[in-house]
């Protein structure tokens, strides 16, 4: 089984910072950084094979296809059960946190910036046990 990690955010410096943390904390050796929800959706569609699994660290407020639109779009896909999402956002809006619970793929709602403690929470999530937990 191939596990891929996508970091989706419209701010390049945030992508680089989060990629560094993901690698240093042993969550994934080579995460993909993607600057738009539509590009993330295209990446999965173009590269998906049976047995692939995806962990997506997803910003929700982006121009173009937002994180919410990405989540809406994957609901219609047959492979949506193989996608796990940690929302990674600057939004402290309670309605966003509530809305995130409406999507079965969302495992966590994390306020930026991503820090070591958040990586540990992702690694220890019951749906990911023994699946993404590699390294530290």
Task: Please tell me about this protein's structure.
The protein is an alpha/beta fold and 136 residues long. Helix content is 35%, strand content 21%. The chain is built from five helices and five strands; from the N terminus they run E-H-E-H-E-H-E-H-E-H. The protein has helices at residues 12-24, 37-47, 67-74, 94-100, 116-123; strands at 3-8, 32-34, 53-58, 83-89, 106-111. Strands 2-1-3-4-5 form a five-stranded parallel β-sheet. Helix 2 runs parallel beside helix 3. The chain is globular. The model has no long low-confidence stretch (mean pLDDT 92).
Count of helix runs: 5
Average of the residue pLDDT scores: 92
Q: Into which percentage range does the β-strand content fall? A: 15-25%
Instruction: Please provide the count of β strands.
Output: 5
Radius of gyration: 14 Å
Roughly how much helix do the residues carry, as a percent range?
A: 25-40%
* Helix/sheet category: alpha/beta
Distance between the termini: 20 Å
Would you list the SSEs in sequence order as H and E?
Answer: EHEHEHEHEH
Shape: globular
Largest sheet: 5 strands, parallel
Strand order of the largest sheet: 2-1-3-4-5
Low-confidence stretches: none
């Amino acid at each position: 089984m191939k596990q891929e990690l996508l970091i989706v955010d419209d701010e390049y410096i945030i992508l680089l910072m989060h990629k560094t943390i993901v690698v240093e904390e042993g969550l994934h050796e080579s995460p993909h950084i993607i600057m738009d929800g539509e590009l993330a959706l295209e990446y999965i569609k173009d590269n998906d094979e049976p047995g692939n699994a995806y962990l997506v660290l997803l910003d929700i407020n982006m121009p173009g296809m937002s994180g919410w639109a990405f989540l809406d779009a994957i609901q219609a896909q047959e492979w949506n059960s193989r996608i796990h999402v940690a929302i990674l956002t600057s939004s402290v809006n309670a309605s966003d946190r509530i809305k995130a619970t409406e999507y079965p793929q969302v495992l966590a709602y994390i306020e930026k910036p991503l820090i070591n403690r958040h990586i540990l929470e992702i690694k220890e999530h019951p749906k990911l046990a023994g699946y993404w937990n590699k390294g530290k």
